[in-house]
Amino acid sequence: MKYGDDYRKIPMYSKESGKVTEFLPDVYVFVDQIVNVLFIGRPEENSFVIVDTGMYKRSEKIIEAAIERFGA
Question: Whole-model pTM?
Answer without folding.
Answer: 0.75
